Amino acid sequence: MSVTTTCSDVQELIDNERKEIRFTTYSTEKSRFDRYLTFEELNDALKDYAKSYDHVTFTSIGRSYEGRDLIGVHLATNYEDDKVVRGLVEKYEWRIHPVVNPDGYVYSHTATKATDDPCKETYCGDSAFSEPETRAIRDAVMDIKDRTEFYFSVHSFGLLWLFPNAHSLPPVQNNDVLANISLKATEAIKKVRHTQFDFGSTSTVL
Hints:
Blueprint: H1 10-23, H2 39-52, E1 56-63, E2 69-75, H3 83-91, E3 94-96, H4 102-110, H5 132-143, E4 160-163, H6 175-193, E5 198-201, H7 202-205
Parallel strand pairs: 4-5
Antiparallel strand pairs: 1-2, 2-3
GO molecular function, one term: metallocarboxypeptidase activity
Cofactor: Zn(2+)
């Protein structure tokens, strides 16, 4: 098997990125999110949006194990020039919580994430909703369950668009509907971002 070295010093890349972040000032809203913000920066950014736009409300649905707020914003109306965006925002109330694991997010910015115990990556807790973060999400969703049309959980890596089931192989009753929505969504992403996402039920794709 032949191999090729693409990076001989990952630490150097990390150090250079940190220097760039430290000395770079961001003058536009678009460029503000071209990197992973620290939790404090993200918190400040969401508060800035709430102060700058009447239709944006800053909120917290609870606290993490270490006491950090599970921050987010609610969008109730909008005045976007884009007709598609405006239509979506006027039709639905959007509740966006960019980080629901703030303790892990902060840890990933301040400590080495690697571990020699692979089981830690998939630790499921003592029971369903055993952790304060998942309880907060559950309670927030249940408060509006009669008005909820859809729910997305977005992760930063994988290029996958997944839907139920995850715990068993038999397809859910509306599997065809979910597959059709996923097809249209991934095609739209490819058209705009030129990125190809695979899609399907979690139990069959993973």
